[in-house]
Amino acid sequence: MEKVLTRNIGPDQMPTDMTAYKANGGYVGLRKALSHMSPKDCLKVISDSNLRGRGGAGFPTGMKWSFVPTEDKCTPGHKYLVCNADEMEPGTFKDRLLMECDPHQLIEGMILSAYTIGADISYIFIRGEYVVAIQRLRDAIAECYAKGYLGDNILDSGYSLNMYVHPSAGRYICGEETALINALEGKRANPRAKPPFPQVSGLWGRPTIVNNVETLCNIPHIIDRGADWFKTLGRGEDSGSKLFGVSGKVKNPGCWELPMGTPIREILEDHAGGMRDGYQLKGLLPGGGSTDFLVPEHLDLAMDYNVIGAAGSRMGTGTMIVLDDRSCPVAMVLNLIRFFAQESCGFCTPCRDGLPWTRQVLEDIESGCAESEHLETLAYQIKYIGAIGNTHCALAPGAMEPLQSALKYFYDDFKQHISGGQCPYHKGA
Amino acid sequence: MSDQEIIESDLNTVLSSEEIAEIDAELAHVPYKSGAAIDALKIVQAQRGWVSDQSLQAIAKYLEMSAEELEGIATFYNLIYRRPVGDKVILFCDSVSCWLCGCEDIKQKISERLGVDYGETTADNRYTLIPVPCLGACDRAPVMMVGDDLHTHLDKQQIEKLFADSKQSDKGGQ
Amino acid sequence: MIIFVDGQEIEVKQGENVLEACLNAGLDLPYFCWHPAMGSIGSCRQCALVQYQNPEDTRGRIVMGCMTQVTDGARFSLNAQNATEFREAVVESLMLNHPHDCPVCAEGGECHLQDMTVMVGHRDRRYTGKKNTHRNQYLGPLIQHEMNRCITCYRCERYYRDYAGGSDLGAQASRDHVYFGRHQEGVLESEFSGNLVEVCPTGVFTDKPFLKHYSRKWDLQSAPSICSGCGVGCNISPGERYGKLKRVHNRYNHEVNGYFLCDRGRFGSGYINSDQRLDYSGLKGAGLKSADATFAAVHQSQAIETAAGWLQGKKVLGIGSPRASLESNYLLRELVGRSNFSSGFSDAEAAVVRSIINIQKTTVATNPTIKQMESADAILILGEDITNTAPRVALALRQALRNKSFELAEQLGLPEWQDAAVRNLAQDQLSPMVIVSAMDSRLDDVASQLISLSPAAIADFSCAVTASLQGQESDDKRVQQVANMLSAAKRPLIISGSSMLSANIVDSAACLAEALQAHKQAAQEVMLSFCVPEANSMGLGLLVNEDKRPLRLSRLAKKIDTVDAVLILENDLERRLSQSELDLIFSGKTRVISMDLLENNTLARSDLVLPVASYAESQGTLVNAESRAQRHYPVFEPAAERLCSWQWLLQLAAVMEHKKLAGIAHFDQIVEACSKSQPIFADLTAVAPDHSFRDRGLKVPRQTHRYSGRTAINADVSVHEPPQPTDCETPLAYSMEGLNRDQPASLIPYVWSPGWNSNQSLQKFQAEVNGPLKGALKHSGAGQRLIKSTQQGLEYKLKVTHPRMQKGRWQLLPMHRVHGSEELSAYTDEIAELAAQAFVALGETVAEKLGVAEGEMVVVSTADQEISLQVKVLSRVAKNCVGFSVGYDKTKSLRAGDSVALRRDKSWQPPQVIATDRGVASNGC
């Protein structure tokens, strides 16, 4: 497949500066849009392309943007575009690559997106730990200001946009778009109630679009080469290419740009090289720590939003975490629940107090001092915490996904912990 | 003059001119002063390693917020330190991919080598060990950051080498 | 519009949320974070129910009642198994870290968390891990902090910061470690901190003074009462046991205080239990009038006899009181005769209250309730620091400023109760409020413009705005700005008052309101409101308002020698008269009889003192600033030989064989007589039901049905059970027997409903959420407005008088303090602690010129005295003005408008710090 998002990224390629980026077709889309296309035209192309958000939820990008009120339906003032570069989903490592290696691609995508929705200020909300990416983005933005790609009257188009990098002070919940907005406002990052959606009332009460890094990186290419071209990239029902990654006990963990709809088996075996010697595949989380387990029987499924959804999981971020047969599924879920309980913002009850309760039950099971009632309690908690709508945001239901699927696929492991009075994977330890 | 007022008047002199200049730069692109709260905390922390009560009060005053409001923000985020830390902070990833790749052994090794557990600072005040959510380098697990540097594919030898010049010590500091 | 809940059809109002709809329908849907005055944020997830898409949908999905707007025909279930299971799970997880310390918790027995736990049926805990614990903070003398009990509903932070505008309490940390407190330990700064006690659904914030002599709610004897702390007239529910006033809770009145009180109202009644209360009548011994003469305690009968001897057939003057009830003042006036009665106001107070009453009688503007003030979309404050002179009004003004955000929300179709969303949308945008005052006020933080002017200049400014509305241009840009703000508003509010004791300001506010209404035509509703000095200033003012030549207090002092005796009703004259005038009254031969509660110099210099009951031991009518007459009832019987002042006066009338008062023996008869005495009091009998009121044949009980230990309560004195006191003066009984349900709003002693032991049971008494009480609909409303404006408008020819200031002298202006300025509450230990030292308030330049800093001392010299006062440095102040803490003991003799000289107190030395708990002391010790 033709490399699109990663055309400037490879083991032997240097991170791009503006010259390098432009040399490989960079900023063509931007020039095209600013000189020949109205924001409306751009929106149509993006809508037609069927691009879906790459941050995890898979919401159609064009539709999201269409909710931003146009000038005549909105009180005068700023509109904002925010890039969500707060990559903190456990097992996810794709946005770091895009930002460290090809910062201009993201910036071009942001300028185009901002132009489309009529934003005049844009922020990149990035993990504070991504020190290298922060520096490269800041350098790239400085280049853009110096060369007229950012600031007033971009490329003499009459369109103006400012862009700032905002390193986060660290909190998983900031990946939730409304929590991110609160963090950008310098507040505690509790998610906000929806509605109103940020498109209408977001950053500082103004219309705001928050998109994931990878989503935004797609925009220049779609604008440059059209919706139809983009649709042909996918192998299945979804459009475009996607960064897929694999971590865990595989021979060749990594991240690759592949067509949407690439089967899991292909990613796992051809690209990640299969399991390390002596390890068997037991299960995998297809798109980060808050997705449901899939098991070997699912290996031939295509990585498409609806296909994975139909199998009871979610595409999420597209970066898989592989569970091998020598790691304890209970302990793995406990690790995840610990993380989610730790990262709960503390706003709503089921998440703030429910997750630590779940953690305690799992700790009992993992340490072998549980009884069969513990499994009933887990089922009760999944029902209580696991449904969207029961909680204020999606963090806690996400946390329940690996747990509920682990109970489904690895029930025997849970039972053995209880009947054996110890973790079967840590015998004698 | 009571103690309270001594503290009050001193607050104007806590922030250095460099810190103020950096905070002002952030203020230029937020509509409300409190909008720069997190940036200001990070700026001061970058200079001093952590945010003391006095620093926090001084920032709050400068941003025309109450200390309570800023405290609520400072204590919400993982990377704002409200207690002193060592010269370098070790952000050790204990999330799922690193766990699958054996990070628990590595953590144990670090603890043994430096004599500290999570949240503690070495006796020589060089390192503070803190767990961090996934560092986004799962393909190179296990990983950690020491200061601004990312260390990947961690194993015990690497830990030994990395902290070779750090004296093994009893549990120390904070 | 209707919705279905478990098949039951419920009538709902468009725009409300499902939780409100359920509560209005009388359904028990548990909740924590939602508050009727603060709306919804959806954090606790307790009010979950199941919503079905259509009649065929049998699964439905969980929604939060407080976050779901009603839509016509929508279907919900409260009792579906997944809903009840979910609600139980919420409580189970809230209880993970809760200490289960109900037996030693002050909230126990009136705890919303207890109620909800029982309501959802949670009993057995499955969590076996360790509980999180927190360190508590010292938050000052009023509020006790116990964070371990916290269930993280965020109500405290939302109330304190978002609703009351406080900045020093907030959420810290995250996940299950969230902590609500201050940055460092210290006294909570807000004047409204006490509401945390009622806002917190469990025992995190509790009433600290109450803890010193604690009783359970069910053991308290309560009566409907009216706060006597200021002229706002908030409705309160004081609770008593063992003859002590234990605590004061809010009593809901949807037009006045709603759900909240200020800290003076809640905590300022400690004086009732004070050692300085008078127990017995005191008669000066042989050395009558001598300074060292002591009082001999005498029996009631002897006191009355003595007084009769001094009064019968003699020429007697009476001095009334703005803190005594209308009935007592009326009786005194009748007793001595109209021309011999002085209101007891200082001359300046009398003038300004007269102005306010005359304006209210004629103004074309609306005289708003507090509830109406919350609807203002532009506010002009003239001369008042409302937070300190009418605190509850200031809280309402803070809500009015949010109307800007509600406007924005409406454009997005967001309901007002979506609290967080509305705040996020509007951010810092507020409706405009201009404060024109001499110096700092506690609403400065939310004002759109601050203008610092002396009292005379405030009146001038107001006149200039009036002129501008009438088409005259002004050189002052600010005049035009204020005129524009007012004329652009749909519901502008002009609010002024008596605190500067300037009738000019009050009159100028009225002129402005008239001009604005004329300018606006009918489209807008101009509101005009005034703050008045004391709890019954208006009642007293109305009593003397029709007198052509009222007897001024200063004139009374001058003619004291022409009379035989003077009768003083609950009035410390030191606060109203100069030293020389006081000497006239007390040094002559005239007998002085004083009735009062607490020791003061007026009592000390009187010949006979009669101990009177406090508001909590007596009934009476108080008329608030909007001329609303409201009745308070005795919570408990006065101890020792205290009597209500109206009872003393009736006894005096009897022994004096007073003809006009001869037929009067009961309180209701006084009300009756008073209502007939002047047309303005015609509605007085409708303020509250008379003593014959019965609810289903029974009086209203002051005690809860769980009231315990009645037979043993006095066992330390006598093992014989004393009979319960009988109450033949009021519709209330000192009893557990009777109903407390939907009687008239003015007769609800406390709120309780089966399953709802906390103050949240109020919703069972409300006709609807935030609406009037059921009893107010069925019977009379919440008090009676006495003044009904003729709306003729007054022709004002305002002549502003400017004081002539000498060089090097300053105009002394009163600064009111919630804690310290009010006479009686200042006798409460906690209030005295917060009041701290009396002070003089200087602008920065003046302080610099005098070479003093905050906390140092300055000598203030008037024409006849010198007082050394602590310095407070102001952030803004009008030219040539300095402030002083008014009403403090030390500054009692200073008067508004005094011309003073200032100098640094050279004899003052900073206190030497011996030790400190705050690190190293400044002098290096």
Structure description:
The complex is a heterotrimer of chains A (429), B (174) and C (925). In chain A, the strands form two sheets. In chain A, strands 3-2-1-4 form a four-stranded parallel beta sheet, with helices on both faces. A four-stranded mixed beta sheet of chain A has the order 6-5-8-7, with helices on one face. Chain A has three domains: 18-233, NADH-ubiquinone oxidoreductase 51kDa subunit (Rossmann fold); 241-324, Ubiquitin-like (UB roll), CATH 3.10.20.600; 329-426, NADH-ubiquinone oxidoreductase 51kDa subunit, iron-sulphur binding domain (de novo design (two linked rop proteins)). Helix content of chain A is 43%, strand content 11%. Chain A contains 17 helices and eight strands. With 429 residues, chain A is an alpha/beta fold. Chain A has helices at residues 18-23, 28-36, 39-49, 61-66, 95-101, 103-117, 131-146, 177-184, 213-225, 227-233, 264-271, 305-310, 329-343, 349-366, 372-385, 395-409, 411-420; strands at residues 80-85, 121-126, 162-167, 208-212, 241-248, 254-259, 281-285, 319-324. Chain B folds into two domains: 3-74, no CATH class; 88-162, Glutaredoxin. Chain B is built from eight helices and four strands; from the N terminus they run H-H-H-H-H-E-H-H-E-E-E-H. Chain B has helices at residues 3-10, 17-27, 37-48, 53-62, 67-74, 96-100, 103-114, 156-162; strands at 88-93, 127-132, 144-146, 149-151. A four-stranded mixed beta sheet of chain B has the order 2-1-3-4, with helices on one face. The longest helix of chain B is centred in the first third of the chain and has 12 residues, at 37-48. Chain C has 925 residues and is of the alpha/beta class. Among the domains of chain C are: 2-94, Ubiquitin-like (UB roll), CATH 3.10.20; 365-525, 3-Layer(aba) Sandwich (Dimethylsulfoxide Reductase, domain 2), CATH 3.40.228; 810-904, Barwin-like endoglucanases. Chain C has 27 helices and 36 strands. Chain C starts with a strand and ends in a 21-residue tail after the last strand. In chain C, 57% of the residues are buried. The model of chain C is unreliable at 920-925 (pLDDT under 50). The chains are: A alpha/beta (429), B alpha+beta (174), C alpha/beta (925). The interface between B and C is medium-sized, with 21 and 25 residues.
